[in-house]
Amino acid sequence: MVIMKQARHPEPAEMTLIDVMGALSDPIRVGLVRVLADGRERGWGELRAPVAKSTLSHHLRVLRDAGVTRTRQEGTRCFVELRRSDLDARFPGLLNAVLGAAHGDDVGSQVGLATDTIAT
Q1: Which residues form the HTH arsR-type domain (predicted)?
Q2: What is residue 39's three-state secondary structure?
Q3: Residue range 60-70: average pLDDT?
Q4: Could you report the per-residue pLDDT of 12-34, keeping only the tens digit for each?
């Protein structure tokens, strides 16, 4: 029998501003949040970033551990979604401010989806 370890997700009351801001201090992680901001759950294989798969996995773990995202495992596949409502309840306005600034400064634009086409 195979036992799958379930990822731990902090409850909203356990989320700290320092952990969330630390998770959002990397352009790749900000890019992942920008991709997930549409509210859809995405499979890890759908996400594209200019880093190795192991590094992408690390970035997703940092976001999960801070409470920014929720990860769900289904068989051998992992899915991730932004915890917008939890973040908005715990830190009102923070996520919108980060997303607005990231868009304005083009932070994280190198992260996207496998289905995205690159304009030449």
Answers
A1: 9-102
A2: coil
A3: 97
A4: 999 999 999 999 999 999 999 99
Question: What pLDDT does 51 receive?
Answer: 96
Determine the residue type at 86. D
d(CA 71, CA 7): 7
Instruction: Assign 102 to helix, strand or coil.
Output: helix
Which is nearest to 42 in space by CA: 79, 13, 85, 75? 79
Residue written as tokens 């995202």?
69
Task: Count other Cβ atoms within 10 Å, centred on residue 116.
Answer: 11
The tokens of 80 are what? Answer: 């991730």
* Four-way CATH pick for 15-105: 1.10.10.10, 3.40.190.170, 3.30.450.20, 3.40.50.1100: 1.10.10.10
Q: Please check the confidence at residue 6 and state whether its pLDDT lies above 80.
A: no
**Tokens 């997930």, residue located:** 36
Give the total residue count for the chain: 120
